[in-house]
Amino acid sequence: MLDKVERTEAEWRELLSPEQYYVLRGKGTERPFQNEYDELFEPGVYYCAACDLELFESEAKFNSGCGWPAFYAAKAEDRVQLTADQSHGMQRVEVTCARCDSHLGHIFNDAPTTPTGQRYCINSVSLKFVPKE
């Protein structure tokens, strides 16, 4: 079980950039094809931008063409939480960080070329990439 990270909204606003706050705490979405990690395929690890929890490995990243970073699996099942999301008149599954409850993106079962068939569609601003040495 992961230790939860809890902060006040004022603390989150101080810690995160305005765009990060909009996505991570406000459940927003960054613009597709105009983000930092969509086309990054270097070896490394992706961490939660809000609490530094290790979320995804570059080996699970693939080019889905969706405009956001896509992964076929999380680092471990206990790193992310999946919740039904019926906002905006759609049926989706939201992906949040298991440690700080920050919004990361959504997961879809539409990736037939991946080992899991899943596509974790994740906002770049929700992530911090650390290259492997």
TrEMBL record:
The UniProt record gives the binding positions of Zn(2+) as 48, 51, 97, 100
The residues responsible for catalysis, as annotated, are 121 (nucleophile)
Give the PROSITE patterns listed for this entry.
MSRB
> Which keywords has UniProt assigned to this entry?
Metal-binding, Oxidoreductase, Zinc
Task: List the residue ranges forming a coiled coil, or say none.
Answer: none
Can you give the residue ranges of the MsrB domain? 9-132
Cellular component terms per the entry's GO annotation: cytoplasm
Provide the protein name. Peptide methionine sulfoxide reductase MsrB
Whose protein is this, by species? Thalassoglobus polymorphus
